[in-house]
Structures are given as structure tokens and as C-alpha cells.
Amino acid sequence: MPWTLTLAGRTHAFPDLRSLMAKATPFRSGDSLAGLAAASAEERVAAQYVLADLPLEHFLTDLLIPYEDDEVTRLIVDRHDREAFAPVSGLSVGEFRDWLLRYETGPDELTALAPGLTPEMAAAVSKVMANQDLILVASKCRVVTRFRNTLGLPGRLSVRLQPNHPSDDLKGIAASMLDGLLLGCGDAVIGINPATDRVETTGALLRLMDDLIQRHAIPTQSCVLAHVTTQLRAMEEGAPLDIVFQSVAGSQKANASFGIDLALLREAREAALALRRGTLGDNVMYFETGQGSALSADAHHGIDQQTMEARAYAVAREFDPLLVNTVVGFIGPEYLYDGKQITRAGLEDHFCGKLLGLPMGCDVCYTNHAEADQDDMDTLLTLLGVAGCNYIMGVPGADDIMLGYQSTSFHDAHYLRQVLGKRPAPEFEAWLENAGITDRLGRLRSNPLALAEAPRALGLTPP
Amino acid sequence: MSDIVPTLRKWTSARVGIGRCGGSLPHRELLDFRLSHARARDAVHQAFDPAGLAVELEAAGRPVLLARSQAPDRATYLQRPDLGRQLDPDSLARLSAARADHDLAIILADGLSATAAHRQGPPLLAALLPLLETWSLAPLIIAPFARVALQDPIGHALGARASLILLGERPGLGAPDSLGAYLVHGPVPGNTDAMRNCVSNIRPAGLPPAAAARRIAWLLEQSRRLGFSGVDLKDRSDAPRIGA
Fold first, then answer.
1. Global ipTM
2. Shortest CA distance to B210 belongs to which of B111, B141, B104, B122?
3. What is the CATH superfamily name and number for domain A3-140?
């Protein structure tokens, strides 16, 4: 369906929905790399005007990737809940943006709406929203999940403790893990990216974390971010696996490039559920995403990277995850060039994920070949805190010595908790206080007795 | 927490035990971080010396060929990964002329850290080549401005049954010189990343070249035996290291 718009005598034409959405997207290098970006600043806004007038209903029939060709499209169509969609079914994209911002639209309305929205609707509305709109609406969304604690409650900010080590050295990882716990972090998950994707390593790392969690009765969960097939193998071999991780993307072809499909994710979820390791809830999945991953696998189908990212959230929400985060700046400058683009993308991803009902966190991060630095991360971190982001990463000193990028630190979490009055997950907060790590105000205490035995138990001190 | 600091720092180069003022970083740590970032930024833009590497590797008795991707310079390379995955026509012709019944093509590339290719490339090859005595090797290829998938058109042009690319990983704050190795069985343009196996963090303080060579050789042997590479080939080359 072609659209045209004439602005001051100049006509802008958009031949189909893909090009309309791509050209309406705030500028980023990845869309330019794909040859999809608007040719001028005016064309971009023209596309936004046209998109704003498009009825939300349109997205239910004009599919970006054909139903027959793509199992992610089939998932989106088959799972769409018409009843939940009803309150906004008569609105255009622009009217939907205004509806989201009304005082009357609160957490309950947004929770009820989520199953009625498709990723394309979320992506489209985000394109006509200002950064402050993305923050305000996301801050009204509530997505609460549980495994051994409760994540996503109002006023809470959780942290994934990310104690990576370049050679998966167990003591090196243990040292970073202890450092994070003693700095009050680790309630979202203790999650290790292994340097090499191996069943033995995955099992050893899971046992290391499980021993620590059990010995000190820490109300949290662990995860090794190996390939899902490696985790399945580790489970078969009896490894104590809490949460299954996988990177996901927004098309069948992109997921195939990751070596996964929906059936494999279903199998992994069933296997983790069968272990019955959660004490408070059954959210056993952890997904990571990031704009540009589909393009990088040449599996974007001519669709802009932000819309493809939102489609990845349809995959994630099929599996009731405990945690989902965009790794926003990890992919590099060819997709998100600088701090400005990373910031916008982080806010879009968090907003779209929350709107679709996902427990969104964000890996606020950048690589050394991007035009960004830690000050840019401070800014995005603060904005996401205001937006009610469920969790961030906690990496020692924000420097991941395995993955070779910069994220956020344990100290960053304390900064955010201080300025915004945020607290850890309630069960974890109680543990921190009982252990003497933090006081009633959430401030770190000096010389906590907690974990005093841990270095010896982990083999970090001579016997 | 002060007494545990040396205990933690002994085991990892991560920024553990860095203290705090309130809940924030002490100023010295803030400046140390900025210095590391400054150095990594400088490393990203350091120049690659293919000719110098060729001399060094030929001295070890191996024929060396140069191959170029379609990325003409570093700025383009950083912003156009698609060009870094394709061979330029001249290189394609040159490699096709060397086409033969090869088991394996090995490529050394700057990737995102020329420093890594220069520092880790020669020692890794010195450790790896003796482990590949049963393999017929194509000439060594040096490829500036290459992405991982350039291993497909290169291996394909040379007629190799497997392709191994060694290239500089993006510089981390503490490790501007880390090399990554990716292997694929049946190199042909269009292979996905799920068909590759990766060994990363190759550097003396990460996975030392000798250990990396053993792991790569193991993966190569297994992929040759199984007839495939990628996510279904699990690296079980040795037990995880307990302790440092």
C-alpha cells in the first residue's frame, strides 16, 4: 500500500509499510548501512506524519514478513489477543501515543493491553514519540516476575551480577562474584558469559554459583549464558541450572543464525521447569536482544533495526521470562554510532519491551570503537532509572574483561538507587540487611561479617 | 571489606576491590578507567602492517598471500561490516589462481585490533601449525579490514574444505591485544555464524597461544571427523581449569 505526503509543495512517497516504518525511524547508522534510512531530515518527519495517521488495525493485516515464511510472524499473528486490543483498536498510531500519555492510562490498563499489541504497533508508536514520552509511558508499566525473589516491583532496581573472566577461571569469577555481593548487587541474577561455549565449563560455573547461593541462602538465581543447546546438555548431565539463557532476534532466519528456533526454546523451558528450582515463581527464561542483530545476520527482510528488535520481544514473551534485556551498545558503531543513538535505542527498547509486557532491563553499554564514553552511559542509566527499568548490569568497575566492552558497575547501581530512592528486590534487600552488607537506608556498611567464610570456601585463601 | 581486597585482586584482573566513597568510585579509580579507555580508543585506530607480517611469517617457511576485503580504509571498515565480509575482485582472482585440493585455509586479519594480530598471530601460528601435520594447508592469507565471514569467500576461492580466521577482537579496557579464532567446515559465501566455532580471548593473560592452538586443533579435527562445525560441535577439548 503506497502512501504519499506533500509538505510545502514537495511530495514524499513511501511504497510500503517497511519503508514507511524505516524512514520514520530516528536516524541511526544501522538503518543507513541497510540502505533503509530516510534520505533527508524532512523525509523522516514526513514519514512520521504518515505513520501517525495509520490505524493500528492496519498492522494486523499488512504483515512485514509473510505469515508462511516466518515463524516469528506466525507467533505474532496467532498470539494476538483481540479482546485485549479492543480499547485502542479504533486509534491511529498518533492517537495511540496520546492515549498512552493520558493521566487515565495507568499500570492496570497497560498490563491488560499488552497481549493486544503486536511488536510492529509498539515499534510504530515509539517512532512518533519523544524520549520523554518513552520514559513516561515505560514508567507506568509494571512487569513483575519471580524465581527465588520478586523482580520489577515499583520503587525497585535490580542488578545482574556479571562476574565474567577471560578464561572462565573459577576463582577469578568467584572473586568478582564476591565483590559484587559485598557491594549489594546480584538480585536479578548472577549471570556469567562463558568465554568458550562448553558443557563442562557451563556445569562447573553453575555448580560454583549454586554452592555459594545455597551456602549463604542468598535469595537470587544463577545463569550461564552459553548457547541454549549447551545448557540443555548441562541439564542432562545434572548441572544445577536455575535460569535458561538465549539471545533471540526478530525473524526466523535471524534466530536460525543463532542456531535456535521456537521449538528449541520450548524444549529448554520445559527442561528447566522440570527441575523445579524456583521457590517463588516459574519464570525460568532469560533473553538478550539488541538492535542490529538481524541485520548483522542478513536476516532483517528489509525492515529497520528497531522494528526487528521489537519483533524479538514477541519471541521473548512467548516464554514468560524472568529477565529480558537489550544489550544496547554492544553491537558497535555500524549499527548505533554514538552516545546519542545508543541513548535513543536504549529508551526505545525498554519502552517497547515494557509495553509488550516484558520484564525489561538494559545492558547500558558501549564498545571502544563507538563514539561514546562512560558519561554517555551515566546519562542513559539515569534516564532508564527514571523510566523504571527492572534491572541493569553490575560489572566490576564497569569493565568487562571477557567481553571487551564497558557496561555499568556495582557503584552505578548505588548512584541510581541514591538519586532515585530505589531499592533492591525485597527478599534480597532483607538478606543484605541481615548479612550486614547494607543498613536500613540501603547504604553500604563497612566491614560486613557476611560472606566472611566465602573466600575460604571458594578456595580464594590458603587453608 | 578492606581486608578482603588483596584476596579478591589476586585472582582476577577485573576491577574488584576498588573501594568507594559513599557508594561511588574514588577519584583515582575514575581516572584510571579514563586512562584505559583512552588507550583502547587509540588502539582501535592503530595501523595494520600486512607487509611486515608477511615477511615475519614467510621467514617461518610458509607461503603467504595478501587478500583484501571490499573495505578500502578503516573508517569505512568500521561502518560497513558488509564490505569487510566480501573479497575484492583482484583478490578473488589471485586466490582462485592458488586453488588446489586443500584441507584448510588459515587467515590472519587485523579485525578491530591490529595490535592483537601483530602480537598474538605469529606465536599462535607457531604453536598451531605443528599440530596440523596431517592437514594440507593452503598458503597463509593476510587480510586487512576483514570481518569473520571473509573466511567463507577466501576458503571457497582457495578450494579449501575448512577455513580458519584469526583476527583482532574489539579492544577491551585491559586487553587491547586479544585475538579471536573462528573456524568453519565447508567455507562458502552465505554460511551463518551458527556454523562457526569460536575460540576467543587469545593472549598471554587470557587464553595463551599454546593452549588456544590445542583447542583450535581439537575443534578442527572434530569438525573434519563429523563433517560439520558450529553450535552442534561442542568444545570438549579438556576439562575446565580449576584455579589459575
1. 0.95
2. B122
3. lyase (1.10.220.70)
